[in-house]
Fold:
Amino acid sequence: MEILITCNSSHPRREFVLQSCSGVLSDLLGSQFDEPATVDTKFVVLIDDDPKIPNWMRVHGMRETLWKHGFGVDVAGGDVSVVATLASGLQDIVIEMFRTTVPRCPGHPHPLAVVARDTAEWQCPQDARHFRCPVGAYPQQTG
Ligand SMILES: [Zn+2]
Structure:
């Protein structure tokens, strides 16, 4: 699968948002969609500034032209808050568009939930002691 991130924002936080989106998408789509059968699938993420609200970026995901979902993020917020918002919003989009469970909670049938602590983390929605890891560092299965 091809993943494209297009950012039309000129905000000073642009690079941080881009890097954060890239880490989140790697967690969500890193190993799941490498099969040849889906190689022609293209997933596009568009980021731009909201023209009316200062420090507000809009994030849209598109799989095909008919599929389009978006959410907003207050980029003037703290890093943890921005990353948690991006992770949660992109997770919703990917789960809905691909009807998949990502990032999957190891050993459980549900996806991980986003929690904002000292950093933004993925954790088991039932028991944080079962599994948790920083957003952007979800361990990918190989082979
Ligand atoms: Zn779990």
Remarks:
- Residues 2-103 form a domain with the SHC Adaptor Protein fold (CATH 3.30.505).
- The beta strands are 2-7, 42-49, 56-62, 69-74, 113-116, 120-123, 132-134.
